[in-house]
Amino acid sequence: MLSMISEIKENFDVIVQLKLTDKSKQSLTTEDDKIECIISISEVDCYNRYNKGINYIGNISKIPSGAPCLKWSAVVKHPLHNYSEDHNYCRNPLPSTVDRPYCYKAGNKWAFEKCIIPVCDCRNSTQDLGYHGQINITRSGHNCIYWKSATKYTSEGQNYCRTPGGDSDNAGGPWCYTGLTDPRWDRCNIPVCESAKCPDLSVISKLKPLDGKTIYRYGEIVKLTCETGYRLIGSKSLTCQKSGQWNGTLPYCQVVTCLKLRTLPKQKLDPVQTIYSYKDNVTFKCDDGYELSSADTITCQSDGTWSNKQPQCAGVLCPPLPKVDNALLPTKIQGYRYPETLKVTCETGFVFDGSDLLQCNSSGLWGFIPQCKGVLCRDFPKIASIVTSIQATKRYRFPASVNVSCKAGYQINGSNPLNCNQTGDWSTPPVCTGLLCPVLPKIENVQQIENRQYRYPNSIMIKCMTGYIVNGSSWLKCSAAGNWRTPIPSCKVDLKTQEKSLLTAVAVGLGATFVLIVVVICVVVFIRRRRSPDDETRSKPLKDPKSTDVYAQVSKKGDIDSSRLSLQITTNGAIYDNQNQIEEKREYYSFAGDIKIPGTAISINDFYDYVDKGRGTKGPIEKEFAKLKKDHLKETKTASMTENTGKNKYKNIFPYDETRVILDLQPGKAASDYINASFINGYGQVKKYIAAQGPLELTINDFWRMIWQNDCGKIVMLTNVFELGKQKCKQYWPDPKTKTKTYGSTEILLIDEDVYSDFTIRTLKIVKENQSKTVKQFHFTAWPDKDVPRYASSIVHFRHKVFSSKVSPNGPIIIHCSAGIGRTGTFIALDYVVNEANDLKYIDVFKCVETLRRQRVNMVQTARQYVFLHEAILEAVMCPNSGIPSKDFPDLYKELMLHDSSRNKTKLQVEYQRMNAMCEKHEDNVFDKGKIPENRTKNRDSTILPVEYEMPILSTFVEGHNEYINAVFLPGYKNKKAFIVTQLPLDHTKIDLWRLVYDHNIQTIVMLNQVKEDTDAYWPENQETPIQIGAFKIELTAMESKPFCTCLHLTFKYKTWDERSLVMCQAKCWDDDAVVPDSKEDLFNLLFEVENKSNNGDNSPILVHCLNGCDKSGLYCVLATVLERLRIEQDIDIQHIIKQTRNRRPQIILNYEQFQFIYDAVLEYLKQFETYSNFQ
């Protein structure tokens, strides 16, 4: 507490002494033994003389004259500050002029007097050393003694606390002597003269005084506001009171809040809050398929409004409507958004192929584009004597037109072309009528001839009147050229008497001759029956007219049965039946007796065992190869001439002089008759082949001269132009783009190019000297460099294709590779031995190659080729039913269904066993990839693993996954990688399946298993919810349901890369526990649906999967390939196709039920399309 003692001084000063009571000492703070008391002048009515009372705000209004003070509001001369005007208390607004508070006297507002106000006994600040007040008590409570009784500073008056001496004594403030021994002196506690200070307002968050001050004292008024983004709650101003407290309740600042945001459809907010305050940012995001109408972020502003309107989510905008051929689209072309769906209408004559809905999908693209296809026309009408390119399997749609042509001798009558109409009917078909022959002239003495028009192939018999005979042919036939085939006869007189005599003489002569012949025959028979039996069995050499070597011997004729249709071969206890089908037309010769098998020959019955045991490196077959004579066996003088060496690709491979092909000399060009090519004899046919070196740049013109000169119709090419980066042969035909190329005086035109899985067939037209010839080039593309084809079946099928194709030039077949000896010799030997085996029933590979090497150097060049030759011969001889014409299949099927009582099996079952024995045997190491530890868990069935070199490689990087997947490529008929078969993915291999789809550009998936668990699905269940598998996002854009399958239209995207689309066809016609489908008809429909959906230009594979990637997938791919070949070739080869697929997936068609199902399905297919079996 403070006590106050007042003393009136002169000049009206009153000193107000402030003393500390004991109780007040306790409230003083101690810091480094310095005790300071700061007194607020507002607690006592006195003024601070140190600042001339500028801050005096007391209530004294007394002046010495005793006159009352005027209110300051009545005075306008001096501006007031810091207090209210409406009072008359003493104040000092002019401290620069007046040294204490004053006021203006009443009655004279221009005169003022200093007021009578006590002076506060305090010092100006804690640093003030000039204290002159009257406090005489130390901080410890001791009384000060008079300075004059002290030993120092005796000049000081009284006993008040002072600061005498230098700064060193007074640094701690005023002091005095106590008169005690301890303490002898002590410091005084002198209050600091200050007005009352109110609490600091800065502690109130975001509150801000308008004048920017931080300290306010008694009487001061502060006007308040809040920082930006906050609003003031409470009074806008406060007054500091005497008590040092603010009047009223303290205001506070409340953050500004913005209006509540709406919940809009398809929109998400971040963050989600009930209240949003100043500076809060809200980010908006739309569901997939939707986009914001404005900026994605808005901010709550200081005035409680949002920086922008809340955006809305609208479906992503799709581009203008795509063009849909033959469809009627709405007039509105653009402005469609997800998920708008349009129903499209086809034009008259067109129907939908799939869904009729066009949907704007979530990616901003149009999903499945409906296709309006022409209505399917009925079966092509039957027109007698028609010649047309119509394929039996082709289905025609509106508005297709088919040009019809008639066979030779006929002409079109009626409308041509034949049009498929919008009703699905064909226009009225034309008629092929025979060409009209000229009207017969009048023939004298002829019996009456019908007076009508005669057409091809009409015939008329000419009869003369009695007494006349026909002079010329009695039959006149209208020819295909529209003229009479023979000269028109006449009737001449019949000289009966003369002719009768002549005929009698002739009859007698003929009778005598006949009797003589009968007598001679009887004598010869009698003599032969008297001959010794030993003479009949004696062997003697016979020149085989079908071979260039003498190694046939004549024996008992009765032992040869060339008409035999079956061959029994026993292998590992199984019996196989082999129909002997002759593939090419050959000349046959009669033998006087049986042909003994040479020492190097093998009976057909034993050949399977021989090859099976002789395979492998350094096996019996390779050892036999080592015995063959090699290098040049005959003279090569012409080839070695200096002018010809540049025409030889290899310096040690020349044609023999006696077998070389000799070209016609060109005028002025010496040695222009040379080409590195040799005539080679076939079995039973001289100069059947020409084995040639692949053309060089220098020899392409000579190559075409050779073909023209020898009237060659077929070229067999067994090398690629480039292999392993090296040119093996110069391309000697035009590119598909240019279509034509000229070599010397010869122009070559590319008419057609047909690509198959292992070979390409090109039709080439040669134009020279205003003449032309058409040849076919058969280009085998599956022969790897420095090796042999992986599967013998490929070259066997190729050979069948070469020799079953018909061409008009019938000269030698040109066969070449690079050098014209290795692959060329192998192919020629294959054809030679197969033809020989079909005739003689034994196989002599060694003798054949030996014979070929006497015609061209080192034919069948390597031991590996020699072994492969044996495997190919075995394939060709054991499985000769390559390409059964479709018209013959129903009869063959009946034959195969017959029961063989001796074997207690049908013939088809025997065929199945024989095929199993002939299939490729894989080494165990080809499955090693699927057996390594990191891949074992990726296989559903450990017995079904991919053949490593047939497996599609995964290249897209995914952490923890390698390039392996349990899948293999399977060939179609024309595409070597038409299918990829795989298993239903496991949960941890779903990412690998999508990598497979992505890496190999899959556009169609065929699913043959049924989904039993939710975890099986690797696609979205609905269109609203896409799924994410690793870095792949998959969406369902459309769905089509059909009786036999469900088609899902999917889009997928890898990371942020371009979006792709595909179709998945899920079969409904095949239960999981069924070996074969429930319905052949449904399977056909599924095949057609997939074919239509996968009709893409880049030949990407179709992905087919079932549970284990084998059982159902294999049957599906085999049947698809069988029907593909049927449509192209009009023939059927089921076993060859099964073997081709087993080479890649050995477990395919491993039960007889599926094997028979394929035969049954083909028969059913032919019944549905009868035109197949009638195709000519």
From TrEMBL:
Cystine crosslinks: 226-253, 286-313, 377-420, 464-491
Chain segments annotated as transmembrane: 502-527
Domain annotation Tyrosine specific protein phosphatases: ranges: 793-867, 1081-1156
E.C. number: 3.1.3.48
Top-tier EC class: hydrolase
Ranges where the Sushi domain occurs: 196-255, 256-315, 316-374, 375-434, 435-493
Gene Ontology MF terms: protein tyrosine phosphatase activity
Catalysis performed (reactions): O-phospho-L-tyrosyl-[protein] + H2O = L-tyrosyl-[protein] + phosphate
Kringle domain residues: 50-120, 130-193
Keywords: Disulfide bond, Hydrolase, Kringle, Membrane, Protein phosphatase, Sushi, Transmembrane, Transmembrane helix
Domain Tyrosine-protein phosphatase: 621-876, 908-1165
Disulfide bond is among the record's keywords: yes
Stored PROSITE patterns: KRINGLE_2, SUSHI, TYR_PHOSPHATASE_1, TYR_PHOSPHATASE_2, TYR_PHOSPHATASE_PTP
Keyword Transmembrane helix found: yes
InterPro entries assigned to the protein according to its UniProt record, in alphabetical order: Kringle, Kringle-like, Kringle_sf, Prot-tyrosine_phosphatase-like, Protein-Tyr_Phosphatase, PTP_cat, Sushi/SCR/CCP_sf, Sushi_SCR_CCP_dom
Stored PANTHER family: PROTEIN-TYROSINE-PHOSPHATASE, RECEPTOR-TYPE TYROSINE-PROTEIN PHOSPHATASE
Family statement drawn from the similarity comment of this UniProt entry: Belongs to the protein-tyrosine phosphatase family.
Protein name, per record: protein-tyrosine-phosphatase
The organism's taxonomic lineage, starting at the top: Eukaryota, Metazoa, Spiralia, Lophotrochozoa, Mollusca
